[in-house]
Design goal:
This protein is an alpha/beta fold. The protein has 2 domains: about 20-250, Aspartate Aminotransferase, domain 2 (3-Layer(aba) Sandwich); about 255-335, Aspartate Aminotransferase, domain 1 (Alpha-Beta Complex), CATH 3.90.1150.10. It is built from 14 helices and 12 strands. It has helices spanning about 20-25, 40-50, 60-75, 85-90, 95-100, 115-120, 150-165, 175-180, 185-190, 215-230, 235-250, 255-265, 285-295, 320-335; strands at about 5, 55-60, 80-85, 105, 130-140, 165-170, 195-200, 210-215, 275-280, 300, 300-305, 305-310. Helix 2 (about 40-50) runs parallel beside helix 11 (about 235-250) and helix 12 packs parallel to helix 14 (about 320-335). The model has no long low-confidence stretch (mean pLDDT about 95). The structure holds ligand TLP. Ligand TLP binds near residues 66, 87 and 171.
Amino acid sequence: MDTRAIDLRSDTVTRPTAAMREAMARAEVGDDVYGEDPTAIRLEAEVAAILGKEAGLFVPSGTMGNQLSILGHCRAGDEVVVGEGSHSVWYESGAGAALAGVQFALAGRGGLFDAAELALAIKPPQHWYPRTSLVAIEDTHNRAGGRVWPLEQLRAVAALARERGLALHLDGARLWNACVASGTEPAERAAPFDSVTVCLSKGLGAPVGSVLCGTRSFIDGARRHRKMLGGGMRQVGVLAAAGLYALAHHRARLAEDHHNARAFAEAFGVSSVETNIVNVDLSVDAERVCARARELGLLIGASGPQRIRAVTHLDVDRAAVLRAAEILRAAVASA
Ligand code: TLP
């Protein structure tokens, strides 16, 4: 890859800063499968406290966090209600079906949904229907373009799910962005949920890792499932240290990514940007535009036949983002 290219494919592409690497090098470690890694234990406790949950579990990826929650809340044959474009439906290689044996039902359109739309998606209790057992919400919503769930809507959906006896999972891969954009606290947004996954490897700039949080007994079950999936890690404190550093130093600065995303979006007349993800709808083939942009020094991804997605992050400043907008405009013109 051309290292001089501006990379807006995802906020997962950041590299650890020198200070983060130093924190990693200094990390105290032990064998985490024996429960002896002090840094992993500290990270799990810290994230659980931030989210107002009893316990946390460090996992290699957001995908594994989501899958552990499905395994913990569902039985094979159950149905999980999600919004359109859900990460678990699109980007987890079919893991829900392959590992937990669940199927998905969509609520509403566009990623977010309200209580009335949830009610329509829940199957009645007759034995010939799949058992609806879990509602999973994505905040911010990736394919919807980094949209933040309004807190009241989130609470109303959760209240209905509770009333119907369903479990609730929050895919908070970008919960940090949602909090900064809306001026709300992580614990407020996490409160209605039984389990929450947050990522350290996206906007926060850590190289690896997510933390799954919930009750102590839920996390005990998830620890067993994590081992089953090969996610029991040993001296993982070197990675947990990066997460602790990211939590302390890279959360508040997400506002900068949101400003940069808006500046980028304005160049294409897109006004709906809430956080660090910009969807730009084109009238030409998106893959062709991406290929042309790459030749011009911009890495960017297609998220539909005529849609591109740009994601701002720690490793691109305002100047780079404005340059990226110029390159993309040129790429569209010549595609
Ligand atoms: N999203 C990635 C890709 O997988 C699409 C990206 O570049 O945005 N939940 C949400 C909402 C996510 O956006 C992602 C990553 C995950 C879960 C999974 O996290 P990882 O990549 O750690 O498995």
